[in-house]
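Throughout our pipeline, every protein is held as a single compact record rather than as scattered files. Nothing more is needed to write down the fold, since each code stands for a local backbone conformation. The record that follows is passed on verbatim for readers who wish to inspect the format.
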Amino acid sequence: MQTPFDPILGRRSLLRGFGTLGALAVGTRLGSAAALTFSAPLPQGSGNLVLLELAGGNDGLSTVAPFADDAYQKARPKLAFGKDEVVVLDDYRGLNAKATGLHEAWEAGELAIVEGCGYPEPNRSHFKSMEIWHTADLRGRDAGQGWVGRLAEAVWKEELDPNRMVHVGSDKPFSLNSDVHNAASFVLPAGYRWIDNEGPMGKVAHADEPADQGEEEAGSTLDALRRAYGDAAESSTEVRAAVAAYRPRVEYPQTDLGRALLTSAALLQGATQSRILSVRLGGFDHHNDLRRRHDLCMAELGGALSAFRRDLAGTERGDATTLLAFSEFGRRLAENGSRGADHGVAGPMFVMGPRVRGGLYGEHPSLTDLDKGDLKHTTDFRRVYADVAGSLFDVKTKDYLGKGYKKLGLLR
């Protein structure tokens, strides 16, 4: 899972990631903005949300392993974990031993594990299922905006800020799509992109892009592009300043997720007004060689989460930050002939942070009462969204998810 990188992951290596910004940076403004280290305190009762997508279909039974269940051991003779191979949570289940950040948060009482998450009439396509998770709607993209985009509108109305929602990584998730609030997106080390969801070009804003419309339309488009370019320049300046000013208190792992969470910490602690961060860890589609490959994913996840948690611990912004991890579906109970597991349905979600009431939530799916070999979901994933986002941003669930999603009591 690791990629070649500078042996010392810190401020200078992060800054190199922004070297391709070119004209998007405004040098004189950067010089003055770089002195800004922390933004104003958050409003009373509000918080920050970090969304972590475990892409590919995380095997929940190898993440939170029900080692004491005979049906689990029988269905997975080569994949099942024994009690001595996991970090024991109780007499039935244990956490994957590689997921160190999750262990530490659990021991501190700052990790909620919500078991059996899913939705009615499940879809086993990666793309369609992720659409459903990103929109919190069974129609997927046909529903319109992403659920985080709707949340932003409920919280901030017409008060716009291009850095309020940021995706650190490639392929901005549809969850951040909004008719009103644009989201920033950038990749390390490739550079920065400012996404104009509803702009005339419907894509990344570039000032030097030629217009091929008619004269009147081209003039209107060019004006709109110039405005978008101005927003992009200001936004990128703030991002660069936040990274330049940030001094992480721990060394982050030299992994993609480690870099993404380090950058997220810089934005949360900096003067960017970033309140919702999105990151992604891929590689979970383990149809073969699941034990080895999943352990590699857990090691990357665990190391990055451990550093992120320790870096933010005890800071005002850190105490206000909650991380929510999810995947588009789980894996089937039975292992296949390639020592892997195929697309399934239900799986666990993880909520981590100082405001979290740690513990087990929901109900572990039965390993004997199956739906054509799949675990039946016991908790609608939208209840977790409703609980976390509603608590962090003090908004009514109906304003961004609709009605009917009873909270689980995950946050203080």
